[in-house]
Amino acid sequence: MISAEHNPFSVSKIHKLPYRFKIKDVEAIMENWYYHNNQGMISGGHGVGKSTLLKELVFVLESKQEKIRFVMLNDKREFGLKDLWNILQLDKKSILVIDGWEQINFIYKTFVYFKIKRLKGFVGTSHVRTMVPVIFEASTDINTFLDLVAQLVSHNNKLSLPDLRILFDKHNGNIRDCFFELYDFVSDCDRENMDTTSSG
């Protein structure tokens, strides 16, 4: 039986995948960030790799010994008053990083906008346009998806998968959701194989 950690589409394995660039690279994005006075947003739809890319930018900043404050938001992790208070306490040498800008309500955003102008820098991710300049528009395509799947299943050559092109279209290019479905598909197939073996 394939355990969760050995499923090629487990979260732990997906998180290790680097962002796949089609044109720019991390250095080019950093140059764009510097050009906009250390302010910038990574924009794009759901599941196109914004968070993955953001972590790579943070890695670059940390390698330069920058002082980072990272706030990760999602549907299960909302931005609260404590988060706002912690941000307002940041000194001018800090760089604020927010993954999931759209999770912040309008009132809190007003205070955060005010604060980031007084910090050394800011970078975040958002599904929609904001007042912060966009330093990179994240997107994906079928070839990128196929390459990532090939990388994940490289040690499972006998693994049978559904039609990946149909799956990609079904989720409108949301690679994260494609991986979630592939994880369930592999788990279900493994369970069915075990049932067949047991009944045999």
Tell me the CATH architecture of the largest domain: 3-Layer(aba) Sandwich
SSE order, one letter for each helix or strand: HHEHEHEHEEHHH
Would you identify the regions where 5 or more consecutive residues have pLDDT less than 50? 194-200
Please give the order of strands in the largest beta sheet: 2-3-4-1-5
Q: Beta-strand percentage? A: 5-15%
How many whole angstroms does the radius of gyration measure?
20 Å
Distance between the termini: 16 Å
Describe the protein's architecture and organization.
The protein is α/β, with parallel strands linked by helices and 200 residues long. The chain has two domains: 4-17 and 140-199, no CATH class; 26-137, 3-Layer(aba) Sandwich (Rossmann fold). The protein is built from eight helices and five strands; from the N terminus they run H-H-E-H-E-H-E-H-E-E-H-H-H. It has helices at 11-14, 26-35, 50-63, 81-88, 106-116, 142-152, 164-170, 175-199, and strands at residues 39-43, 67-72, 94-99, 121-126, 134-137. It has a five-stranded parallel β-sheet, covered by helices on one side. Helix 4 (81-88) links the parallel strand 2 (67-72) and strand 3 (94-99). Helix 4 (81-88) runs parallel beside helix 5 (106-116). It is elongated, with a radius of gyration of 20 Å.
Describe the secondary-structure layout:
Elements: H1 11-14, H2 26-35, E1 39-43, H3 50-63, E2 67-72, H4 81-88, E3 94-99, H5 106-116, E4 121-126, E5 134-137, H6 142-152, H7 164-170, H8 175-199
Parallel strand pairs: 1-4, 1-5, 2-3, 3-4
Helix pairs in contact: 4-5
